[in-house]
Amino acid sequence: MDGAGNHRSDDLVIPANIMLHPLPPYSPELNPQENLWDEIREKIFKNYALKSMKTSMPSSTRPHFTFKRNPALVKSITSFPYIVRSL
Questions:
Q1: How far from 61 is each of 10, 67, 71, 75, 83, CA to CA, in Å?
Q2: How far apart are CA 64 and CA 57, in angstroms?
Q3: Which of 3, 28, 38, 69 has the smallest count of CB within 10 Å of its CB?
Q4: Is 69 helix (H, G, I), strand (E, B) or coil?
């Protein structure tokens, strides 16, 4: 689990047969989705301002369709050697 503050809860009941290990603060090789977020920020949501929330909705679906149409891109961004060996 990552250490994000909004990913914590005192109400979470963890079963006895589950152990949670917090990830180091920056560990993209242990949390490959972070690399997808970097790709989205750098290539899809460049530094620009939207005029309203209404205009943001079409933009917010673009990453989903970009990755859905190009699984090879997702694989290239998230495939660390330990993941590939485990498949």
A1: 33, 10, 16, 20, 27
A2: 12
A3: 69
A4: helix
57 pLDDT band (50/70/90 cuts)? low
Ranking 13-17, 35-39, 69-73, 81-85 by mean pLDDT, the lowest is 81-85
Predicted TM-score of the model (pTM): 0.54
Tell me how many domains the chain contains: 1
| Domain extent at residue 25 | 5-86
Query: In angstroms, what CA-CA distances link 72 with 6, 22, 26, 42?
Result: 31, 29, 25, 18
d(CA 63, CA 37): 9
